[in-house]
Amino acid sequence: MSMPMFRPGDDPGSSFPDLLKRMGLAPEQQFGVDLAGEFSVPHATTCVALRYADGVVMAGDRRATSGNLISHRGMEKVVPADQHSGVAIAGAAGPAMEMIKLFQLQLEHYEKVEGASLSLEGKANQLGMMVRGNLPAAMQGMVVVPIFAGYDLLRDVGRLFDYDVTGGRYEEHDYVATGSGQLHAGTVIKIGWRPGLDRPAAVALACRSLWEAADADSATGGPDALRGIYPVVATVTTDGWERVADDELAGVFDTIVSEVRTR
User: Of 48, 71, 158, 251, most Cβ neighbours within 10 A?
Assistant: First the structure.
């Protein structure tokens, strides 16, 4: 496939979705499907993010559900958007994963065309536009509600953003939770969060929030030591995105289990 050529007035610029539309490669969205009567769409559930001394921590459980059934035990809901930002998803799994892939391509395309990375504020706005574009599907039950977080190199601080189904973007200063277990997870973080948390304390707080959410919400998956499946937890700092190793998470959850047993 040859590279497309555009006239100066017809150049889509650094927008990758606009480039796909100009080339006729944009995926067609079909609406009007009776989701309740035809099939049950797999849904991703609880994700959290919080600020700490060096940046932000993002975490999400691994369970995807279709109604009352577990459709996937190892889904990864927290992924890097680029070197200094990440996205955590809750809602309809298929549209959410497609949105994230397009978002990653958009950021990479912008950087290659413009020769510089988009600002963190610009990335948050771009994701909001994509959530807004999913509104027709959301009205049919395929809701996607992400969390966006990253390290702002211009402000030298970690920042958090959450969204509503219409694409509204809201910056949170301390922590944010989304998904079916957000009430339980958010309450745990609200009680345990303190300014200036170090990395171990922030990771432990995120893990505890998912533990309590899984204990009260059937759609949220807890750590599965038998299968070696643990939540996806990652940090984003001035050094970039870094996923927390499962061995470290196993130790964190062992501590949580010990504390629960002594209560």
Answer: 48
Distance CA 186, CA 106 (A): 30
Classify residue 61: in a domain, yes or no.
yes
**CATH code of residue 131:** 3.60.20.10
Residue 203's contacts (CB-CB under 8 Å, 6 or more residues apart) are: 57, 59, 233, 235, 244, 248, 249, 252
Tens digit of each residue's pLDDT (9 = 90 or more) over 29-59: 444 344 444 445 667 689 999 999 999 999 9
Residue 3 falls within a domain, yes or no?
Answer: no
Give the separation between CA 90 and CA 232, rounded to whole angstroms.
14
Structural domain count, the chain? 1
The reply to whether 20 falls in a domain is no
Q: Please list the active-site residues.
A: 45
The backbone region for 48, taken as left when phi is positive above 0, alpha when psi lies in -120 to 50, beta otherwise, is beta
CB 91 within 8 A of CB 46: no
Would you call 48 helix, strand, or coil by DSSP? strand
0.85 cut: is pTM over it?
no
Structural domain including 198 reads 40-262
